[in-house]
Each structure stands twice: as structure tokens, then as C-alpha cells.
Amino acid sequence: MNGKTRSTASAASTEFATSTGSTASTASTASTGSAGSAGSAAPSAPSAPTGSAGSAERIASTQPPASAASAQPAESAGSAESPAPSAVIVVGSGPTGLLLAGDLATAHVPVTLVEKRSQKISNLSRAFVLHARSLEQLDARGLADELEAKGQTLDRIRLFGRLTVQLGSLPSRFNHLLVIPQYEVEKALRRRAEEAGVRFVYETEVTGLSQDADGVNLQVRRADGELAGLRAAYVVGADGMRSVVRDAIGLPFPGKSVIRSVVLADVLLDEQPEKILTANAVGDAFSFIAPFGDGYHRVIGWQRDRDVPDSEPVELDEIREIVRLTLGRDYGMRDARWVSRFHSDERQAPAYRVGRVFLAGDAAHVHTPAGGQGMNTGLQDAANLSWKLASVVNGHADTGLLDTYQAERHPVGRSVLRSSGGIVRLAMAKHPWTLALRAVLTTFFNHVGPVGRKAAGQITGIGYRYEAPRGSHPLVGTRVPDVALRSGRLYEVLRGGRFVLVTPGATARAYEAGEREGRKDRLAVESWASGRRTTLLVRPDGYVAWAAESPDTDTVEAALTAALGSQVLAAQPR
Predict the structure, then answer these.
(1) Eight-class DSSP state of 293
(2) pLDDT at position 452, please?
(3) What are the C-alpha distances in Å from 66 to residues 71, 74, 389, 565, 572?
């Protein structure tokens, strides 16, 4: 893929709903959606991006020698005994890092997660919305139903008082958003990671990083101040906006502060708001209220004439004033357990990969909280990267597959910056022409169906697709909805972390469980619940790697070989 994305809210579902038979019986493989075969040439390593570490420091994308397999951590950061070395070290135990580490461990990749905080999960987090695409990814990991039971669903998003983004018609099992605190998401993901065998190293701060042709060295500082070292074949920085990993590989974080002096409080309310999410904007202020589920509510507010540094103390009366101005009353807010003042930035790293080091989540991109897309975008980063790293480390793909992470996810991050930034700028509108524009857009979104569907697709994440090679089947690169199979639902089958070949019954029997080529641990073979003739190869992250109409077995075999390899490549060091 060439790094472009299309945001089409219902493109995938529309195409999946169309009857088949009119498309020519041709096979096409998404070069970015599949591992190269054992005999294929690896894509060349990209040149060093503008602003990244110099080309002399950038590590070429080559298979490391087997000698790295015996590399031990310079010193254990978690116990008196030196553990076996990890193939991957993930830095940061937020939702992005936890999902990524859990995926890798589930794929039998030795992984260590390094976190500077203590083991206790804080309830003082800013994110509290899961969108449809994130819920689909969590469903593919067996966690969505559990989280849905703990949160509250909402079938629409209302902005500026009158602009409404309808979610009830989303082509997803999760045709709503889920209001749930980030710490509940972290609890579920951490439990999964622990059960999968992730090694957690808490109260350990990364202080530096270096990489060579064989792997990556991390320098860390423990809680007692003692310095230590860890080594792995690959490192993923999921350590937030102030990422030490990003700084260590020489990547800038260009952008700017969009809005300053935003105030936040977690409070009890004497009056319950009429809606699950309550928000409004006036010319000089906006506010937002959402429940935590434990009796407390998160309140966020901003007032134009209160532009002070983040260090300025916050009084509850300041927040009450903003809420009364924007919502008409303060709901009797009291007993704040946390108050804070912060600013909101729009920033994106120019590259998500330098050599053997990757960035994901807020370490790669940050944007305004408008639309609640922050945590969700990070979860999608993790779902995209995890299966690719696992394929390479386990020897099923050449390292060129890892370059597709940048090609697929960087454009999505850029799009999220634009959409969330556009929402917050309209919310802050003050001048007559910007207020008029907001009024026009509100009417347009509310009354023109395709516009509203596209907006819903962007905000919820289900509308993004990855660019496919020229000549590919139209479905290649699209997100696959939770289609019905003879054995059940697609996203239940994806819980194995494998590719899924969905095909008519006769072809499915020919490739039952992929046993012909010893692919059973990497390929599930399923047949449509309907009589559909399309054959799809679905990636572990739920996007189409390859598709064809009524292909013969040789064509299917060629596609499987391109995606999964006809044999196991030399394994990456562990």
C-alpha cells in the first residue's frame, strides 16, 4: 500500500452486502496486508524520514543473525534472577501497550512490558469512550462483552447542541459508543496479558536506548535508583506524549497546542444529567460531563477569557461557572476527588518506525479529545502492529512486512488529527463567519445522510480502509464486519490471532484447518453461512488481505503462500 487511506463509513459493509457474480474471477494479493513468501524479495527499507535519526544511525531492515537469540538482559529489572530474554519489549502499560503485549504473548512471542508507574491502575484517566472499531478489536480478543456489561451505551454523539452524529445505523455489531473509564479497559487488557504470559516490570523508567543490527538495548532506572539494562530484538514505545523512546531514536514531535487551560474535575452530582454524555458549546466556553459508573462524573470545561498556565491552581468554583454558562446549571457538583488543568496538543511523529523501534498510541500522535478518538486510535495501532511483529519474530514473514505499519497507520493518525481538530475549532467558534459556518455544517450533517455516515465512520474508526495495490479485488484493504459463518461469528474465530480463510463449503473442505501445509496454528478455514461465492483471506486484525470471486484451488493456494509462506522462514531471535 502506498500509505493513503479512504474514510468511507460503510464502504466495507456495503461491498460485503452486495450480491456476487458480477466480479471477474481474479486473484489479487495485498502486498501490505500479508507476509512475503519465503522465496519473495523483501521490500527495500525506507529512507530515513525527515527529522528522524540520521541515516548512519538508522538500522537497515534485515533479518538479525541467530547470535542475538542468546542475548541476555544486562540486568533484570524485575527480579533477582535474570529471566530469559524477550523478543519484544513494550514500553508503557496504557491500553495501547497492554493490547500489543497481550497479542504478542498470545502468539507465543516472549514479551516484556516496562512501566514506570506502580502496578496499581489509576482511576485518574482522561479517556472514557470506546468506539465501534475498538469494540470489534476487543471482541476479537474476547473482552468486548465483559466491558459492555460495565459501561453505558450511547447511539448518538451530539456536538454544539444541535449537530448529531447517529451511530444506530453503523454497519457493526457495536452500533453505538461505550462510555467506560479507561481504567476498566486497562484492567481487562492487563488480565489478558498476564494470563498470556507477559512479563511485567513496574516502577522502572527507560532512560536511554541504542540499537544495532542484532537488536535493541534499553537503559532503565529502577525505583531504588539502580541502573540496569534490557535487550530485545524489537522495542515498541507506547509511553505517551512525552515518550522517552521517541526522543531516544531522534524523532521530533511537530505540532502545536490547540487549546490551553482546559479544566477537569471528577465530582459527585446532586442532580443527574438527562443524557449519558452531556456537552455544549457557546461562543466563549464549552463543557462536557460523563459518568464513571461509580457515582462520580468527569467534568471538562474551557473558557476563552481564562487562559492561564497549566500550573495555575484549579478551584471547583471555576468549573461550576463554566458549566453554568454552557449548560444552564452546575448539577450540584461537589466533593471533587481530582481537579486538574491541562492543554491539548496536535502532534504527530513523522515516522512510526526507526530500525527496530516502533511508536504506537500517544507516543506517535496526540490530538484534541474531541470525538473521543485518542485511546481508540492507539488500540488500532496496536492491533495493526502486533500480528506483523509476531509473524516476523516467529519466522513466518520477512522483515519487509514491518514497513507496512507506517504505511497503514500514519495516514490514519493524520486523519484523526484533522477531524478532532476540526471539531474543537468549531466548538471554539467566536467570530460571526465561523459561527455561521458551524450552523451550516450542523444542518448539512443532520440532513445529508452520506455526510453523516462518513463522519460516523471517521469518528468510530470503522470507515477507514488501507490502500490496496492496483488491480486488487475491491475488498482488499477493507475492514470486515462480523459476518456470519457456519461455525458462528467471524470475530469469535479471530480470537485465535490467526488469518481466517472464508470461502464456500467445497473450498473450505479442501483446506480444512490448513493442515496440508502445517498452517493450523496460523490459519483458520471457515465457510459462509450463506451461499456467497467470494473467497476472503482475513488478516488477524480484521482487514482483507486478499479476495477473489469463485477462485480455483491453485489460486487460493497462491494467495495463502503469499500471505503465510509455503514454509517457515529462519526464526527471529528470542
Answers:
(1) S
(2) 61
(3) 10, 18, 17, 20, 7
